[in-house]
Every structure is written in structure tokens, then in C-alpha cells.
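Q: Joint fold for the lines below.
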Amino acid sequence: MRVVVVVLVVAVAAVGLPAVALVRAQGMRQPSGDVSKPPFPLDDPAAIEEGKHRFSASCTGYCHGREGRVSRAPKLRGKTYEPAWLYARIDKGSPGGASGLVMPAFGTMLPPEEIWKLVAYVMSLSNAKDE
Amino acid sequence: MRKWLSVGRAPLLFALVLLFVAPSLALGQTEGLSRLQNDDPNNWPMYHRSYDSFRYSPLSQINRDNVKNLTVAWVHQPGAIVQGLESTPLVVDGVMYYIASYNRVFALDAATGKEIWHFYPKLDPVVNTLFFQPYNRGLAVSSGRVYFGSLDGRVFALDQKTGKVVWEKQILETKKCSCNFTGAPLAVKDKVIIGQTAGELPIQGKIYALKTSSGDKAWEFNTIKEDPKSWGGDSGKFGGGGGWMTGSYDPILNLVYWGTANPAPDYDWGGARPGDNLYTSSVLALDADTGQLKWYFQEIPHDDWDYDSGLGESLVLDRDGKKLLVHQNKSGFVFVYDRTNGKIENVWPMNHVYNWVKSINPKTGELIGRNPPREVGKPKFICPWIAGGRSWNSGSYSPKTKLWYNTAMEACEDVTVEKQTPQTEPAAGLFFGGDQVAKHPPGGEAYGHLDARDPVTGERKWSINFKYPPIGSVLSTGGGLVFHGDIEGIVHAYDADTGEQLWHFRTGSGHRGGPISYSVNGKQYIAVPSGLGSLVLGLYPALWPEVEDFPAGAAMFVFTLK
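A: Joint structure:
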């Protein structure tokens, strides 16, 4: 998809969601290629800019807020995330938990390089202030 | 923007309908007419209770004098809280049917809450990739079956007594279109009608009628008109639209009234979709038997704001000898039509704060002084925000007070348009063409309100303000009461004449669904779905940071007198 709605939902699995479990059990497509490391430096300005465009071109107001500003979803500005964790969350999404939020999986929509650009952009927000 | 196609003369149509209805009555196919006439006040048999979409229960055992004695009769929890509980329950002959997130369907003893059956569909994993999930707004019941549209693009018919699948049909190519069903179907005679999500997707959204007997498609209506004047270039291929909420029905005219969603992309940087973009952001009058378009009115020609006419109710209202239709879109303006031909009777604003137009001509529906966000990369201040002057939740019309009880959101946004190329491979990607940040209105705080209004003139009788704009539907009753739940998790009962609060109860999580009333064995109940969750809530924390931590939940609270 063209948007990142990285709803970084805390994984609390206490509420019993058989339907979710079913979706997870049937599995999502594994991303193709080597996804263990980014194909470019994560501080590459061009990659960050492309990631920003993909992030903001759709729906972030409903999800993470424009440029990662405050929303119901977890904050992205001023936070430090592990790149591999971010990649996995964007790829696989999160089926939701105690927060009542859900994040779609983007691994079937985006090639690994595009996901890494999103990772680069979200990482670039670590020094941004939440306004 | 009105187009009158071929509406029959009412008296002649009435006579013709009688000719066809009489044999139907003889065959026992009376459900449609009886439901329109509300002849069984004990039931709530469809999404808006009746084909006129009033969301009004004539029951009066619970009234102004005794509502203070309401107490909890029972609570049912669906066990899935993601995106809360957005649905409106149905009650038919003492059994409650409702649907929760992940399409969990329940049949309960409506007097005790004891489960009769449940149905948890095996959903395709594609659901996990979708934007519109995992909520659902409601069911339809007809011909001994319970119908719903699923998150993965199927329509199900369950046996009303057992919950077993009678038929299921894959209607949408969800793996390709990323579209699905989230709204309640409408059962009309031998068909069940349902529209799909599409407004934020580069696809063509449709409305479908399936045969109740088999699920076979009876007709479909493409909300994207094949017309190069209306859709420049190939923009129509990616035009969005669809009809994701539930329409109304007039059995005398045999017309189904259905609102259509916004075009895609939501925002236009100039040239994204040249033309007026028919039939998006419109009201359609479709022949219930054939799906033939009888008339339409495009409320937002070339919608630049995602003001989406697909939401909410269309009141089928008769007044002073006129057959009217009252419909609101997300712009906050209420359109009043002659429902025989789509001619505008009036247009009035439900919202106090707006700048997307200067006004709308109340005689023609023409938008005056459009103010579209067009400049790429530069934020533009627009009111109301993308969540709308009202969201998809419904108001309630009481034929007793002749007032429409309806909610409004007075909030704004900064819209930043971004050029975007539609993505259709390997599946459709979201196609917004921009982004937004919620903003307070000029000179004050954003807020919401519940109003009692004349639905035709807009005249206001009373109004109650809320700090957080409410997103739950409204119920009015023959007991002179109005029920409504707020975002903080409190359900209120108001005097329908004055707006005075007579009772309230804290359910513990906010309200997004639809309260109803019904009766079993002579005892009246009020059912209130509670459980905060909604895409639009993502906009709130920019204005009220504390909303970020408002608890989710999902529970059906049912109240009765002590």
C-alpha cells in the first residue's frame, strides 16, 4: 500500500481473538529477497525523502498523524526504534490487542526496498519533536 | 446536478404496486410492507429499524417519568475489541442478532442475553492487509436468514435458527481490490442489497443485489459512470466511490435510496480526475427489482474534500403531501429532496463551522464559493475535517415530536495535497492523494453537539454540547426519550422535547454503534453497544491528547426498568 499506518500496537494477547489467531495461523507471504539489512544506508537523504512521500501520500491522519504526529497509534516522533523491528512490523502488521487498534500488513503490497525506505523515514523522526 | 430519468407518476405506481403486492401478500411475503409500517413495535428488524430509516422505536413503557429506574438487565461480550463495537443490533421475535469485529455473529435470547448460537467465519488472511477492518456495522434478517457482508468480500446467509451457513458468495476480489464489506445489508423483497468500500481505493465501487434464496447476483450498479466528460482520461478506472453504508427503501415507489462514497483520490492536485466524477458523492434512486437508475443527485460534484455521501441514513419522510428524502453527507449539509424525482426541496447546514464552501443554494443544491485544497505540499485550512461534519453514525427521527435528533462535529484540519500514482498491483493500494492534521476552529476549541432539529427546515429546538465530538448513533422512542452514547463511555437519556438529561450510565468504553429498543414478553429493553474504536478517532489526539489513551472495549449493554 501507499501508506504507512504503522500502528505499533502493544502485543497483548489476553483478550482471546480466535479470528485473529486464524488469520495469523494461515500466515502472510514472506517478503522476497534478503531483508536482513537495508540495501542503502538508513540515513540516506534520498531514501528518507522517498519514504516520507510514501508515508504521507495517504491516510496518515487517520493512523499515525501527519509526519508521525500524535494519534491513537503509537507516537513515531522522538522515538527510537530498532530497524529490524520496524521492518517486521511494517511487513507483518499487528492484529491488535489491548489498545483496540490494528495495523495492516504491508508485506504483500510493498517490495522490501520500499519497506526499508519507510523504515529510514520513521528512523529519521527520532529527533523530531511531537508538536 | 440533478438528473431526472424516468420516475413514474405516484398514483399510477401505487396502483401497479398494489397489483404486485396483493399476490405477494397471498404468498405470505409480507415482511417488507409490515416492516415499513412498523406494525410490530416489539422488534428492531433492520439496521435503521424501518425502511424509512427513522431509528425510532414506538415503545413507551420506558418513558420520561420512569427512565430514572433503568438498570442493567444483562451484558454480552463478543470477545473481540479491536476497533470497538460499531454495529447496531437487531431483534426479531425475542432474539437479538448482532455482529462484532472480525465478523463474529451472535444470536442471543433478547430477554436474558443467553447465547443461542454464534458464528465465527474463517476469514481470508488478506483481511490483515486491509485498511477497512476488522469492524462491521450490522446485519439484515429476512426469509428465515441472517445476512452480512464479510471483511474478505463475501456475503453470507445464515440460518436464523441455527446460525449454520445456508449460502456464501464471494462477491468481491478482495485480494486484488483491497475492498470489502463493512456496512449492513438491506433486505428488500426477495433480495439483499449491499454496497462495498471503495472511496479511498483506485477501483470502481459497486452496489449489489443478491437473491435471498441462493445468493446469486440479481443486479449490480457501478457507481463510476462510463463517461469521458465525467471522468477525464483514464481516471474513472481508479474512481473509487462505492456505497459502504445502508440505504433506505420506499415500497410504494419501489425505489431504493443509496448514498455513494467519495471519488479517489480523495484530494485532487488539479487534473487527477477531470470532470464532475459521477456517480460519486451522490444519492441514487434505484429500482429495487432491476437496479435501474431512476434519478440521482450529486451532492458534491467533483468532491475535493472527501465529503462522501455514502454515510448515514436517508429519511423517507412524508410532509404536507410531499414525498421527501432527507440525506446528509460528511460536509455537514443536509439535502432535502422530492424523492419521486430528486428535485431539491431545501439544503441546510447542520454545522456552525465550515469554510469548504461559502454556502449551498437551498433551491438548487449548487455549491457556492468552493474552497478546495489544491496546492501540492502546502497545508490548507479546511472545515469541517475529513471525519466530516458528522461521521457515518445515524441520527433518529421521531414521528411523535417531528424532530430529527442528530450529531455534529465542529472541527477543522490542515490538508496537504500530495500527488500520487494509483497502485493496482499486486493489489490496490490506498489512494488518498493527501494528508491532514486536525485543527481547532478559528477562535475556539473544537467540539460536538447533539441537536433536535426539524429535518426539513433545519430549525433547532434544543442542542447539547460535548467536549469530544460524538460518533455514536441516536435512538428516539415513543416514551419521549432520546438515547445517545458519547466517546467517554456514558450513555445518556434525554427528554425528547427539551433535551433535559433524565438518566445516564457509564459503560466503561466509548460509543460508536447504534442503540435500539425492543420488547420481549411485554417488557421493554434498551440495548446499547459500547466499545470505542474507529478510524476517525485517529484524528482526535491532535486536538485532545488524552483521547489517545481512552480505553477500547466491546460489550452489549441491555437495560430495563427495575
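Q: Anything notable?
A: DSSP finds four helices and no strands in chain A. The CA atoms of residues 65 and 71 of chain A lie 6 Å apart.
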